[in-house]
Amino acid sequence: MAIQKLRRNTPQRRIILQELRQLKSHPTAAELYAVVRKRLPRISLGTVYRNLEVLHEDDMIRKMEFAGSETRFDGVLDKHDHVRCTECGRIEDIYPRDPDQAQD
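-> structure tokens emitted (104 positions)
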């Protein structure tokens, strides 16, 4: 059995997760930073990046990396797939009829 490292649930991490889960746009770290700064004006972009990595490592969010574009993040953990527009780069969620068929 693997032992999971216990991490403090900091106020910054809580707010980053709350804001990410409210967004359906699959934001980059910089886009999420702009949203989080409305609640935490003194937070740094580095803090957002570090906390996104921790949340990803702890399986609380998804990290999406596509060739030729910035890493994006998804706070929705339900089984679903993603489709990306090749023209504008927008990412949409796709929910298959059978959730076990999802790639994630």
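The radius of gyration is 15 Å.
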